[in-house]
Amino acid sequence: MMERVPGATVGVVGGGQLGRMFAEAASPLGVDVVALDPTPDCPAVPPAADQIVADFDDRAAVRDLAERADVLTYEIELADPDALESVAADFDVEVHPTPDTLRTIQDKLVQNRALADAGVPVPDFEAVDGSDDLRAAFDSLGTPLMLKRRTGGYDGRGNAPVASVEAAREEFGDLDGFVAEELVDFERELSVIAVRGDGETATFPVAENVHKAEVLRESVVPARTSESVREQAAAVAEKVLGALDGRGVFGVELFERVSSRDTDGASGDSREREVLVNEIAPRPHNSGHYTIEGCYTSQFEQYARAVLGLPLGDTTLRAPTVMANVLAEPDAETRPAELDGVPGILDEPRLAFHWYGKREVRALRKLGHVTVVGDDRDDLLDRARDARDALFFREGTETASEPAGHSTQS
Amino acid sequence: MMERVPGATVGVVGGGQLGRMFAEAASPLGVDVVALDPTPDCPAVPPAADQIVADFDDRAAVRDLAERADVLTYEIELADPDALESVAADFDVEVHPTPDTLRTIQDKLVQNRALADAGVPVPDFEAVDGSDDLRAAFDSLGTPLMLKRRTGGYDGRGNAPVASVEAAREEFGDLDGFVAEELVDFERELSVIAVRGDGETATFPVAENVHKAEVLRESVVPARTSESVREQAAAVAEKVLGALDGRGVFGVELFERVSSRDTDGASGDSREREVLVNEIAPRPHNSGHYTIEGCYTSQFEQYARAVLGLPLGDTTLRAPTVMANVLAEPDAETRPAELDGVPGILDEPRLAFHWYGKREVRALRKLGHVTVVGDDRDDLLDRARDARDALFFREGTETASEPAGHSTQS
């Protein structure tokens, strides 16, 4: 069903930076965004039409959201699929992507199985509930392996490579409710933002992602890999859409590695490459922020178009683009977020700065990003990093004002 | 003075479409916009942080705005320079552009004199207060001439070509407080968005503007004229900045005509051209909306940068761009604004749609625009017009809900 534009309202569970950039992109279309988020004055609030302050799984609040919205969506995996499903039925409002897709993605074991069943290449994996399962997994998947909590992890939290049952116990405490995956010896991490609209799909150009401490630092677009790998990545992302229900924007994180089929002894760039899906996000993704300046349609405008059943926009890349995250230090003390240095980077040509409006610095928290558009990707990466590295958070003197306990993903 | 970014608040008098697009562009910078506007839920409201509902010249409201803002500006010429000036002094808040600049621009005679004094080429003009002045003006400026009310006109209202005192009386009633200008036999209407920041200036690429019934319909960028004319236009726009005080974004409307110096009998494209300033707007301008998709920095982000004293952004054109206004019909009855046809144009490649969130259709009111980015300007103009012409406002059945008497300019 196509919603009325201009004039539609999207109710979104979650009001972090994704909700904020969504609201910024929805406004020109005449689409109002109402965000449900427990943090008063959450990042989405200035550009969004309104906020409902409530926990993500507060059914009364989700009802309130449904009453005000033409369609419901979520920009955070902590959204409650049961609440969305029951409220959607009561109010005859569609939820996109579907609550079932959210359930699938919330459980990494279920996610892997759904992807594998759809013919999507994923790392070999095994369910782990207890030490016997883990021992068996070392036998079948190799040592070390990647152990992931099935639910609740993000930005690398809840994931760790482990080489023994003892190490796993030390890292996680218990060993129930995990999925073990082969540890992929990848050459690059890639991602594709894949979109399903009303009877059509689209993919954005392939990003190459640089992680540190399992947190995304930079995305380089187009990915500095072969055309063949980029084509594979796009094809895999399209296949991922086949495993998931509902309209929306999906972040498809990929590993690029030398193919296990490549047994002819070639080396270097001539070796055959394959891509495997690492994880799926059922929402716009940090590695797609480059699309705001880099593509004719941003992932956030595309999100609005998709959930409202409108025609999808043109995902063509306008020019090579690099995005660098503005993160708090790994050892940052929680304090009010006051960023210095921004005026000094704003005279960099073709640079855009994005602030998320978060009140507090917390260790490794994502608080903004910079994007540079241009030609040479290595040069763009240097410039984006230099600009980002010229920014710093003031040391705190006051006590923090934001309620504790709310984290946003991306 | 450079304001703190992220974290600054701009108080803007006026909350029409310019305030809305300003708020959309300010949000990524972490800049909050508070708009003062008499219309509840004015167009700026969804993306802006807040609105003060009050008349533009309500001093208590302007005080309230000043208390909440790090800098004051205005997106409408109906702002009150006296109120801004006195409040700014009381609260030690800067106003950009200065209230004096607003005064200069509010009075077309004063504006013409200030431009002429600064060496800016303007049409020949005379003050007209009464029929004797007008008769003298016909002698000195020729017949017909362009008669403009010194204050209060916009979008062609308050301006008319007249060929006799009788015709002028019929058009305007009285003849006091006018400026008469030579009727310029122009080949094209051009415009340049000129920007003054903190000790630096910038100009955007020259737009070619198509008007009908004195209302802008389309802008084509770069203007389809000679490189030499575009250079002249940019130089004149820079000179205009010299006649005005304060930081900000200025819409410089220009006429291109065959030069009066060209007496050698050349014809067609080989004739020497000159540009004359028609009018100045002390704010972002309708003919600069193309910059949102067309340039690395939009006029609205530039506006935020300028008034906050931040470095100006890169005004380079990314690709040829055409903008077409979505206007109500000339004979439109006032009714709720419900636009049909938008989904049907959203699959046009490289097209962007902008809705202003106005509640009511009124005759020739600007309610949105479409922008198409690409290569061939003639083709882009066709496509932008076709897309715009596919949109139509529903016939009204309900009574209008928006308070009467508020008009927004651009």
UniProtKB/TrEMBL annotation, chains A, B:
UniProt entry keywords in alphabetical sequence: ATP-binding, Ligase, Magnesium, Nucleotide-binding, Purine biosynthesis
InterPro entries cross-referenced by the UniProt entry: ATP-grasp, ATP-grasp_carboxylate-amine, ATP_grasp_subdomain_1, PreATP-grasp_dom_sf, PurK, PurK_C, PurT/PurK_preATP-grasp, Rudment_hybrid_motif
A Pfam family the protein falls into: RS_preATP-grasp-like
Taxonomic superkingdom: Archaea
MF terms (GO), sorted A to Z: 5-(carboxyamino)imidazole ribonucleotide synthase activity; ATP binding; metal ion binding; phosphoribosylaminoimidazole carboxylase activity
GO biological-process terms attached to the record: 'de novo' IMP biosynthetic process
The reaction(s) this protein catalyses: 5-amino-1-(5-phospho-beta-D-ribosyl)imidazole + hydrogencarbonate + ATP = 5-carboxyamino-1-(5-phospho-D-ribosyl)imidazole + ADP + phosphate + 2 H(+)
Keyword Magnesium carried by entry: yes
PROSITE patterns: ATP_GRASP
Record has Hydrolase as a keyword: no
The enzyme's E.C. designation: 6.3.4.18
Domain ATP-grasp residue range list: 112-308
Role according to the record: Catalyzes the ATP-dependent conversion of 5-aminoimidazole ribonucleotide (AIR) and HCO(3)(-) to N5-carboxyaminoimidazole ribonucleotide (N5-CAIR). Catalyzes the ATP-dependent conversion of 5-aminoimidazole ribonucleotide (AIR) and HCO(3)- to N5-carboxyaminoimidazole ribonucleotide (N5-CAIR).
Subunit and partners: Homodimer.
Name of the protein in question: N5-carboxyaminoimidazole ribonucleotide synthase
